[in-house]
């Protein structure tokens, strides 16, 4: 059978060989073949375990990845002006990143796009640099305060939440524009219907940055590497804070990786033979996992006189092992770099901790940071933390770091990295025949809107 699903097939090479055979056979069936749900697979920045459901995205992409080429559901873009991008200011506290740096904005302008940029004193890159690149500078929060001042066809580009839940805009906000940002409402997160309703009432649309994927279902732009890097740094820092009973951890952004490494080194013991913590990275082959592993490698090279951190890199083979969950508890620091889209056995839970009272786990970093999701693989915590207070301290449980904007710890480098990945696709917004990435994202929005059942 071919199975129809709301999830994106991602799998390991071995499983892909099997899937390829099945799908190639299926493609020879008649077009009347009925499609029904498929076996659930894992989705993450790293392909990790076949027992976990996969990322929800356009079914045509799923089939295309395995040799079947149904037509992508294509938006009719011809009746709209697709040449105006409006970079909004961010409303999340401590958010200094930007999704578009000035040099890339200049490339868009040279290609014929109009760029307006809201003033934002918190942004890591000064407004003046955007102005020098040719952007029109407009008041902060213009699209929120005067939405009619922004043409309806405009793409409003941002990163995180549209507005704080306790802000003056939150209650009555409706969205008439096309918004490009991390909406965090396509996977049944808390408040997802409320966010979708804003667009249903306003007639706008979400083109979610998390769901911009290529023909093989791989994300084309993410902060994953820097999320993993920053998460691992905070996890090790919190371990040292706890070990040496230092003041509660509180951080702000760092100019460079070197500054971050110096900060963590300052918390670690000076004696080389002091305790040598063991860390485990779940999803080590994905972007976030590679970032986490890179931090531990950089730290070992930077602080050669410091205790060396022993790092276990877990991916598919390790997590499929029968004793995989038990082995996680044999580390002092755990960094989770996957974002599950369906139910699976929790990685760490109150029950598993209680069953192993002599476990070593002291600090858990949830890079995926989706505690409101029903598929949270670390169900012993239920709320996000902040850079100001990154560690959630709970009695008789490991400390948890769950900052939703970890890359903000290195805002300049992270912004440069992300913008470099995103700008080739922004350049295609007004290019006929080059919008497959955006059409796939639009198809996900359409499906989630249908699932909300507002009518």
Poorly predicted regions are: 1-71
What's the overall average pLDDT, rounded?
84
Tally of DSSP β-strands: 12
- Estimate the global geometry from the Cα principal axes: globular
Tell me the span between the first and last alpha carbons: 33 Å
Rg over alpha carbons: 22 Å
Order of helices and strands: HHEHEHEHEEHEHHEHEHHEHEEEHH
Helix content: 25-40%
Strand order of the largest sheet: 3-2-1-4-5-6
* Number of distinct helices: 14
Largest sheet: 6 strands, parallel
The chain-level structural class is alpha/beta
Report the β-strand fraction as a percent range.
Answer: 5-15%
Molecular structure report:
- It is a single chain.
- By secondary structure, the protein is α/β, with parallel strands linked by helices.
- The radius of gyration is 22 Å and the shape is globular.
- The two termini are 33 Å apart.
- It is 32% helix and 10% strand.
- It is built from 14 helices and twelve strands.
- The longest helix is centred in the middle third of the chain and has 20 residues, at 224-243.
């Amino acid at each position: 059978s071919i199975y129809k699903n709301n999830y994106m097939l991602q799998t390991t090479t071995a499983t892909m060989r099997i899937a390829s055979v099945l799908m190639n056979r299926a493609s020879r069936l008649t077009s009347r073949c009925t499609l029904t749900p498929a076996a659930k697979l894992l989705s993450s920045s790293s392909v990790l375990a076949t027992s976990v459901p996969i990322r929800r995205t356009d079914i045509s992409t799923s089939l295309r990845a395995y040799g079947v080429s149904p037509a992508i559901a294509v938006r009719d873009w011809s009746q709209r002006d697709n040449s105006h991008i409006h970079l909004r200011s961010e409303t999340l506290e401590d958010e200094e990143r930007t999704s578009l740096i000035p040099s890339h904005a200049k490339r868009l302008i040279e290609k014929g796009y109009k760029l307006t940029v809201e003033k934002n004193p918190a942004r890591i890159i000064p407004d003046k640099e955007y102005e020098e690149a040719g952007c029109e500078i407009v008041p902060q929060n213009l699209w929120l305060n005067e939405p009619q001042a922004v043409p309806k066809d405009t793409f409003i580009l941002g990163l995180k939440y549209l507005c704080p839940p306790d802000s003056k805009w939150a209650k009555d906000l409706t969205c008439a524009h096309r918004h490009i940002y991390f909406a965090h409402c396509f996977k049944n997160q808390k408040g997802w219907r409320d966010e979708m309703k804003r667009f249903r009432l306003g007639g706008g649309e979400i083109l979610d940055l998390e769901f911009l994927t290529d023909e093989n279902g791989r994300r084309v732009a993410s902060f994953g590497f820097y999320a993993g890097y920053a998460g691992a740094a905070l996890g090790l820092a919190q371990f040292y804070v706890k070990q040496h009973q230092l003041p509660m951890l509180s951080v702000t952004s760092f100019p460079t990786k070197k500054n971050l490494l110096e900060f963590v080194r300052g918390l670690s013991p000076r004696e080389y033979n002091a305790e040598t913590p063991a860390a485990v990275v779940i999803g080590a082959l994905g972007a976030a996992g590679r970032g986490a592993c890179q931090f531990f490698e950089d730290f070992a090279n930077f602080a050669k006189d410091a205790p060396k951190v022993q790092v276990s890199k877990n991916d598919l083979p390790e997590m499929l092992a029968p004793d995989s969950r038990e082995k996680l508890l044999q580390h002092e620091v755990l960094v989770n770099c996957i974002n599950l889209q369906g139910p699976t056995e929790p990685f760490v839970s109150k029950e598993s901790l209680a069953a192993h009272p002599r476990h070593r786990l002291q600090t858990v970093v949830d890079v995926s940071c989706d505690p409101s999701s029903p598929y949270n693989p670390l169900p012993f915590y239920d709320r996000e933390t902040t850079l100001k207070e990154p560690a959630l301290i709970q009695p008789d449980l490991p400390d948890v770091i769950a900052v939703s904007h970890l890359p903000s710890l290195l805002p300049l480098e992270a912004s440069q990295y992300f913008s470099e990945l995103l700008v080739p696709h922004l350049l295609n917004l007004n290019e006929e025949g080059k919008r497959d990435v955006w059409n796939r994202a639009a198809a996900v929005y359409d499906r989630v809107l249908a699932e909300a059942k507002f009518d």
